[in-house]
Design brief:
- This protein is mainly alpha-helical.
- It has one domain: Orthogonal Bundle (MetI-like fold), CATH 1.10.3720.
- It contains 15 helices and no strands.
- The two termini are about 45 Å apart.
């Protein structure tokens, strides 16, 4: 047998044996810190005694309401919890294609205004909760889901316009896409939150609406490029065959080209949504406290629990991982 092959097999076997032995002490130390020596009850004294030896998950047990729901009033948090459960369930069901497209669209069309009405209140003896008090995980879901849904139709128009034979339209779409993709989201959010109100007459739009529109317009530029790749993956013969059947431009795109393009780039669209879901944490800089910002809000005014911020961020990271990993596995 070849000597190089023997050495290669020996080296691989050595790695399979050595790596677990080398990593075992590290893995055990992490498990011991996170589980066996950890404090799970909201006991500040026990957490302080276990500092350096075990994790203090008690900070999550103590601050979970603020972390999950932000500044939403505590007596009314059942409303925010209801929205969180319904949106999460429908989001995963839509990703897994539990419902047909028309059914899913109808459910989202009903859930969106119902959730907005429930969160805002002002009817049936429900207290009014302004949008600047919405926060936590429900706000992250709303901004990412609604922002993506609003961006997708605009992205389709931009992707089609970029391939248009009409030069002014094509140049406008290219300029829009390249300009938005060249700007960081933080800058765009800052402009929407603090500069745009100076140009709007009267009270203008509230902060939540401005941020949501900004996220939609910003995401559309990235989604347009994803869809353009999907359009290029559709064979030209598909459009030519549809044209030969007498379909006009709109009918060819709606019934023949776009369904195939979206199917071809569905994994990339899912990745774009996952990215947007995480990037919504940037809205904290404009005083909308979503999931990540809610943790800062929970610990900012409590000096005693502030030293256990690491466990809080690990918990938030686990929540992000659960949603992102779950979506990546349920998309078909």
């Amino acid at each position: 047998m070849n000597t190089n092959l023997l050495l290669h097999r020996f080296f691989n076997g050595f790695l399979w044996l050595a790596l677990p032995l080398l990593l075992a002490p590290v893995a055990w130390a992490l498990v011991d810190w996170a589980v066996f020596s950890a404090v799970f009850s909201p006991d500040l004294q026990a957490c302080q005694q276990a500092a350096g030896q075990g994790a203090c998950w008690g900070v999550v047990a103590e601050k979970w309401r603020v972390i999950v729901f932000g500044r939403y009033p505590v007596p009314e948090q059942w409303r925010s919890a209801t929205v969180l459960v319904l949106w999460s369930a429908l989001l995963f069901a839509t990703a897994a294609r539990v419902f047909k497209s028309k059914t899913a669209f109808s459910l989202w069309a009903l859930l969106l205004p119902a959730s907005a009405a429930l969160l805002h209140g002002g009817f049936a003896d429900l207290a009014v909760v302004p949008t600047n008090l919405w926060g936590g995980l429900p706000l992250t879901l709303i901004l990412s889901t609604v922002g993506f849904a609003m961006a997708l139709p605009l992205a389709v128009l931009l992707a089609l316009g970029r391939q248009s034979a009409v030069a002014p339209l094509r140049r406008f779409c290219i300029a829009y896409i390249e300009l938005l993709r060249a700007l960081p989201l933080v800058t765009v959010l800052f402009l929407a939150a603090f500069v745009l109100p100076l140009w709007l007459p009267g009270e203008g739009l509230d902060l939540f609406t401005r941020v949501l529109l900004t996220i939609s317009l910003f995401s559309a530029a990235y989604l347009a490029e994803v869809l353009r790749g999907g359009l290029q993956a559709v064979p030209q013969g598909q459009g030519q065959a549809a044209k030969a059947l007498g379909l006009n431009v709109i009918q060819r795109n709606v019934h023949v080209v776009l369904p195939q393009a979206i199917q071809a780039c569905l994994p990339s669209l899912t990745n774009s949504f996952v990215t947007l879901f995480k990037e919504c944490s940037l809205v904290t800089i404009v005083a909308l406290f979503e999931l990540t910002g809610a943790l800062s809000l929970a610990l900012a005014g409590d000096v005693q629990w502030r030293s256990f911020y690491l466990e809080g961020y690990l918990f938030i990271g686990l929540v992000y991982w659960a949603y992102c990993f779950g979506l990546s596995k349920t998309v078909k």
